[in-house]
Each structure stands twice: as C-alpha cells, then as structure tokens.
Specification:
Elements lengths: L38 H25 L5 H11 L1 H20 L3 H22 L2 H28 L3 H14 L1 H25 L4 E4 L15 H15 L2 H4 L8 E5 L6 H11 L4 E4 L11 H20 L2 E5 L41 H14 L6 H16 L7 H9 L7 H9 L12 E7 L17 E4 L5 H12 L8 H9 L6 H17 L7 H13 L9 H21 L3 E7 L9 E6 L8 H21 L9 H16 L10 H6 L14 H6 L3 H22 L1 H14 L1 E3 H9 L14 H20 L40
Parallel strand pairs: 2-5, 2-6, 3-4, 4-5
Antiparallel strand pairs: 1-3, 7-8, 7-9
Helix pairs in contact: 1-2, 1-3, 5-6, 11-14, 16-17, 16-18, 18-19, 20-21, 20-26, 20-28, 21-22, 21-25, 22-25, 26-28
Length: 816
C-alpha cells in the first residue's frame, strides 16, 4: 500500500472474506463413495491365506512322508475349515468395499451410521490414551488368536493346546537353535572385535597427580596463561558463574606458530587441574575402514561423560586440531578464511584498519576491486577453490566422517542416562529424569587455524580463541632465565638481555633447543659451565646450519669479505633501529656470505627513513665493490639489487614515500597507465614503465647509491678491518662487528687493534696485492696479515690491564 491506496489489482477485495488456511477451522469434506482400491489392496489378504494354506500342506507332507500330495491337499481342505471361513469373511469384506465404491447410500450408512455411531460411543466414554491402550490390547489378542489357529493346523490339535506345545517344540529344537546362534555370534564377534580393536589407541587419560607440569613452568605467555587459568577456575568452581545465570565456557582454541607453547599450556592445565585430563592425538580418528572414526568419537564421549560425572568435570585436549579438517564449501566461511590472518596486499601494509572508517558502499567497492585485481591469478582462483572443496568434501573432515559426529557430540542433544530411566520409567508412564549437566572443557591446539571448520569454532563449542604468538622480549628473557637456571652457566643478566634481543622470533621450543646446544658445546670443550661463546656458537649453528666444507681462493675470499663488510658497515653506521646479529663469509647452501640483522625493539611500523636505510645497506655491496676494485663488480650483487629495487618500487608506487601520492597498484588495476596487473612477477616491465614510475625508481636508487658511495669512502679503513676479521674468523657476532668498527673491545674480538696506523698500512698493502691478483687473475703472493697484540697506552695500563683477548695462534677466541 502506498500513501493509503490499495495496491493495483486489489480493488474490491475484502481481506476478511478470503478463505482461511487453518485446517482445524476448515469445513470437513466427505466423499460420496469409497475411493476405488487397487488390485493389490483387494488381493493381498487372499494371497496371504493361499501362502499359509500352502505352508500347512507342506507341513502335513513332511509329518507323514507316506502320504501323497493329493491326499494331503484333500485332507487339508476338510481340516482347515477355519482358513476357508476366514477367506469367506475376507471375500465378504471386499464385496462390501466394492458396493461402497459405487453406492453412496450404502457407503454413508456403514460409515456414518454404523461404524460412526460406534466410534462416537467409544469416544464419549474413553480418553484418547485409554482408547490407544485398548486398541493395542485388541491387536495383540487378534494376532495371538491367528497364531493359535495357525499352530493348531500345524500340530493338528486345538488352538489352545497348540499354544502350550510351542515351548516343548522350542526345547526340542534348542540344540539346533543354539548351534545356529553360536555360529552367527562367531561371525558377528569377528567384526565386533576388529572394530573394537581399531577404535582403541590415540586417546590417553591422565588423572590428577599424573602430570607434574605446572603453570609456573610456562614462560613467556603470561597473557594467554591468565585467560586459561580463568577457565580452569570456572571448571573447579562452576557454581561461581552458574549461580549468576551464566555457564562454564566449554572450549578453548590455542593457535599460533609451532613451538610457542600451546601443548605446554595444555600440559600445565593437566598438572594444575583436579579433574581428569584426556589427551587426543592427531591420529586418534584416522582409520582404514569407513565408520571406525565416528565409532571412536562416540567411544571417546562415552568415556568423557563418565569421567565428568564421577569427578565433577574433565578436560579434553585435541592436539594438532587441524587434523579434524573441515567440510570444504559446505562450511560457511571455510573457503575464504580471514579470521586468523590479515588479508593480503592492499589491506596489510597500514598501521590501522583502513576498512573501519569507510562507509558500507565504499568498503564493498574496495573489497570487490581487491578480489578482482589482487595478486591471485584469475585463472588460478577457480582451481584453488576446487582443490579446497575436494579436500574438504572427499575426506569429510580428518578421518572419513569424523567432524560431523564430533560437532554433534560437542553440543548436540543429551539423552537421559540409564536403561531404567530411559526404558522402564517410560514403559510405566513415568517422567524421565533429565540428562545430567556434563562439565567438559575442550582444549584444542593448532598452527593452521584456517583449516578448522567454522561450525567447530562457534560459541558453545569453542567459546574462547587465544593466539599463542612469539613471546615479547620480556617473555624471551624470562624463558631464557627459566631454561638456563636448570644448567650451570656463567651468563649475566646483561648477556640474557642481549641474547633475547638478537633472537626476536625465538619460541619456547627454540630457546630450549638453543640452551641444550650450548650445553653440548660446553661438554665438547671439556667444561662444566656454559659460557657466552658456547651460546654464540650454538646460535650460529641453529641460524646458519653447518657450513659447507669449501675453501675460497685468496682473491675471492677477500672480495666476499669486502662485500659483506660494506653491508655490515652501512648497517652499523645508519641502521640504529636494528642490531647486527651475524656476519659471515662461510658458504651456505644458497649464499657465499651474509649479514643478518634483528630489531632492537619490538616495533610494528616502518618509516621512509627506515626504508631508505634498507636500500643503502642493500646498495653498499655494489658501491663497495666498485670503489675497492676500480669500478669492477661481481654478479653477487644481483640479490642486493633485487631487494633495493623492490623496496624503492613500493616506496615510489605504493606507500606514498616518493614524488607522487597515488597508489600505482590501484591505477594499474583500473587500467590507467597500462594493462591491469594480475601478477607482478609477470608484468614487471609494465610496472616499471607505467606513468614514469621506472624513471622515478631509477632516480631514487641513483641518489641513494651516491650517498652510499660517500659512506663507503669515508669508512675505508673500517671496511678493511671488517674484511680482515671475516677472513680470519669466518663468522662474527654483532657485538664484535660493533667493536671492530668503533675500536672497542668486544666479547670475542678486541677491535682496538684495527685502529692503529700499523694495521692501516698492512691492510692497504694486502688489498693492493689482492687487486693486482684480481686484475691479472693471478695468485696472491703475500699471506693474510697477522696482527700484533694490542698494547694499552701508558695512561690506561693498570686500569684495564695490558694485552688483548684476541691472539693470533691456534685456538684463539672466535676462531672456527
């Protein structure tokens, strides 16, 4: 209706006059005659009588073998008068139905007057429940009479006597029946035993006191641990929340990178709680035969409910819960997960949620543009979709149909317990006792949360979802303190702080492994106490792996050392937000040398000045090789140039850190300045040439390269000092790099010796010989310079002591 006017086509229509659709108020329509019956409805009773008569004739021939078949037929025709009478009654009934199908008066008389009057009389004197029970008794009596008549014909006696002959016949045939049942049970028990055997395993039950791990043994995850403790408190004292109208949270999901302590937190819950702890392995529901998985699920929950009733609560932990799988396209949101990981490309570079302040139409347009012009190839997306659907639909969720019964058991209808409660009380017409309240806390751990089904994560099944991420610096220090306290060591709090700084993505598992590797190093050296050098060597082994057993020729070794020294010098002089972790020229699987850095603080944003320093550090190898080798450079700078170009491209075209403001990715996607970019790796030429972006990138790189060259020329001696230390020791720690550059004493190397006039002369002479050998492709004729011990100035002798911690003989600190 618009402005009070009725809709078109409704003129003159009275809504109150429309027929009602309520069946209870609709008038009853009676048929004038009985509906016609099919041939089967007319003949089925006669066929039943014929089959029964044939069975009785066959029984008579079996009981009297000398009697012929014709004599048996004639004898049964005379003795089975009751069967003939029943057949006659059925014939009269069908004749009555036939008349009712053609005569309205006949049909109305029997339906309304005769049988209808009987029904009205019974309905007026009996309730519905009494009528139902009386009808059921009449049916049982009717079939008992039929059975007695049939048995009377079989035993050739009266119907009443035949009923009493049945037990005797059963006892006579009991040995045969027992044999048949026995062999049937053997066959059934074989399958029962097989399925029972396969349903076992993968599920362990721990009772209070079995596990010694406590919450105090979990370090570096204080915020998550506090939340988990809260759930354990509610499980111990459920009335504290249920008395106020709430309910105990039923599930916790711990997700995060491997080794961050998810399983350790669950183990601590098992040690702290006063309830049983049921551990479910990832392979618990995997089975060869279809149906064993759901059988295991039901067996698990039967056990869990019994434990919950006996102990007042139970904790169930599913390790590697991603093995449960999902239902693929059938699960809403299962194909396009975004709950646990940020969206790619445009949506993950900002420090704020760019979608939150947009209007709904703008947000929708932005999302559609991202889906149409993102980095995922349009041809590849359907294949990924099909693969995801196939993976989820074919397996049915981790073990052939396990997920569905698991979801039903976790929050499905709970049936009342006990045979007496469910069967006997119902048979007596008594009300059943309601199902008890099972207090079960489900815990799940996974590092692949997107593979979990959305229905599994809904409140009521998994109420709380916690990320167990990489620990913060304070958490790493606490973890190092915990593990180092278990072994003898000489590390100071400053050493632990430094170690936590240079291991920004260390997890509980990697920290434990590092401490153990340090202990192995100390034992290998014949010491009982772990020192800092043991920790450094252990970290180098874990980060870089064992070096390849190769040796550089002298001129190539010096070139690689100068290359890495330029990187290290630029990072030391300009990059104040990060610390050098390791500098090495030991050849690895895919590199000749490397300089790695770590953040000094846990920060989450990058600024233009930070990116410019990153480009300068990348370009330092090119500038250094050209300066130290008279304009020549090696192919080893290719990876550095790739890194510098990528950063400069994003600065100029995407992050608003260049000469323009517009995002080049968006202009390309809408067709401005070239074809839309569907895959940046396959459209680099168009990316660099569109709207002068290539010229701006080249201009920025050249400006930063000039700044880098000035930095290298101003620190020539420091670079030669770093190159000499790398050639001598192969691998340097960040503290030793800083000591060499600044002329101070490092943990393993005394950098003061590199800031003497004697070293400058030896370093320049050695580099000149390397340059000649490089130019002539000849051998180097002088050895690597050997530095004398550093002698303290007279003014400082007696304060810091004379000599140096860095010698030149075998076994000197830092030597590999």
């Amino acid at each position: 209706m618009v402005n009070g006017m009725p809709p078109p086509g409704s003129e003159g229509t009275d809504l109150g006059s429309l027929p009602t659709l309520d069946p209870s108020t609709a008038p009853r329509v009676e048929l004038a005659v009985r509906p016609r019956a099919s041939f089967w409805d007319r003949a089925k009773i006669f066929l039943l009588f014929a089959g029964l008569w044939w069975v009785l004739v066959w029984a008579a021939t079996v009981n009297n073998p000398i009697e012929t078949f014709g004599d048996a037929v004639s004898h049964e025709l005379t003795s089975l008068l009751w069967l003939e009478v029943l057949a006659g009654v059925e014939l009269l009934r069908q004749f009555h139905y036939l008349i009712s199908e053609h005569s309205p008066k006949w049909h109305r008389f029997f339906t309304n007057t005769l049988f209808g009057g009987i029904n009205r009389f019974v309905a007026g004197h009996m309730s519905d429940w009494t009528r139902f029970r009386a009808g059921r008794a009449v049916k049982w009596l009717f079939w008992l009479v039929i059975l007695a008549v049939v048995l009377a014909g079989f035993f050739h006696t009266s119907p009443v006597v035949s009923l009493f002959q049945v037990p005797a016949a059963f006892v006579t045939a009991l040995p045969l029946i027992v044999q048949v049942v026995f062999f049937m049970l053997i066959g059934v028990m074989q399958f029962v035993a097989i399925f029972w055997f396969m349903s076992k395993g993968g599920i362990e039950t721990y009772f209070p006191g079995d596990i010694k791990t406590r919450f105090s043994d979990v370090w570096g995850q204080d915020s998550v641990l506090a939340r988990v403790k809260e759930n354990v408190i509610y499980l111990r004292d459920p009335e504290s929340i249920e008395a106020r109208g709430g309910y105990v949270p039923g599930g916790i999901l711990l997700w995060g990178p491997p080794g961050t302590g998810k399983t350790l937190i669950a183990e601590a819950v098992a040690g702290e709680t006063h309830n049983p702890f049921v551990f479910v392995e990832p392979s618990a529901f995997q089975a060869m035969f279809f149906g064993v998985g759901p059988l295991k699920v039901r067996a698990l929950f039967r056990k869990v409910r019994k434990l919950a009733l006996r102990y007042g609560g139970v904790v169930v932990f599913f390790d590697e819960a991603d093995s449960l799988g999902n239902r693929g396209a059938l699960a809403p949101g299962g194909l396009f997960p975004g709950r646990f990981s940020p969206a790619p490309d445009t949506f993950d570079h900002g420090m704020c949620n760019g979608m939150s302040y947009l209007s709904s139409p703008s947000a929708n347009d932005l999302l559609q543009a991202h889906l149409q012009h993102g980095t995922v190839d349009a041809d590849e997306a359907p294949r990924r979709l099909v693969n995801r659907v196939m993976a989820g639909g074919m397996m049915g969720g981790g073990g052939m149909g396990v997920l569905q019964p698991l979801l039903a058991q976790m929050s499905g209808l709970k049936k009342p317990r006990g045979f007496f409660n469910r069967v006997i009380r119902r048979a007596l017409g008594m009300q059943q006792k309601p199902a008890p309240k099972y207090r079960i806390l489900f815990m799940m751990a996974t590092n692949m949360p997107d593979s979990l089904d959305e229905a599994l994560l809904r409140p009521g099944r998994i109420d709380r979802i916690y990320k167990v991420g990489y620990p913060s610096k304070a958490g790493r220090i606490r973890t190092y303190e915990g593990y180092f306290s278990k072994v003898a060591n000489s590390l100071t709090p400053d050493d632990l702080d430094r170690l936590a700084t240079i291991t920004p993505y260390a997890t509980g598992a990697s920290i434990k492994d590092l401490v153990n590797e340090s202990l192995i190093n100390s034992i290998r050296e014949g010491r009982d106490v772990i020192t800092w050098s043991d920790v450094v060597r252990a970290k180098q082994l874990k980060d870089l792996g064992p070096p390849e057993d190769v040796e550089y020729v002298e001129r190539e070794r010096h070139a690689v050392a100068v290359h890495e020294a330029c990187h290290a010098l630029a990072a030391t002089r300009l990059r104040h937000s990060m610390l050098i972790d390791i500098a090495t020229i030991e050849k690895g699987g895919s590199y000749l040398g490397m300089v790695s850095s770590v953040r000094a603080e846990d920060t989450f944003t990058q600024w233009r000045s930070d990116y410019e320093v990153d480009v300068i550090v990348s370009l330092a190898s090119l500038a250094g090789e050209k300066i130290f080798f008279e304009g020549d450079n090696s192919s080893g700078v290719s990876g550095d140039l790739n890194s510098a170009t990528i950063i400069a491209t994003y600065m100029e075209g995407y992050w608003g850190m260049g000469q323009t403001v517009a995002s080049h990715g968006i202009t390309q996607s809408v067709g401005i300045g070239g074809a839309p970019v569907r895959d940046r790796r396959r459209d680099e030429r168009g990316l660099l040439e569109g709207r002068g972006l290539g010229e701006r990138i080249e201009s920025k790189l050249m400006d930063l390269l000039q700044r880098t060259a000035k930095l290298i020329e101003a620190n020539r001696t420091e670079i030669l000092a770093l190159a000499h230390a790398l050639e001598r020791h192969k691998t340097l720690t960040g503290e030793d790099v800083m000591a060499i550059v600044n002329g101070t004493k490092g943990p393993l190397i005394d950098g003061r010796m590199y800031h003497t006039e004697e070293f400058r002369e030896m370093a320049e002479a050695y580099h000149a010989e390397i340059l000649r050998a490089h130019r002539d492709h000849d051998d180097v004729n002088i050895p690597l310079p050997v530095l004398p011990d550093y002698v303290e100035p007279l003014a400082s002798v007696g304060q810091n002591g004379a000599g140096s911690a860095f010698g030149v003989g075998e076994g000197e600190p830092g030597e590999h």
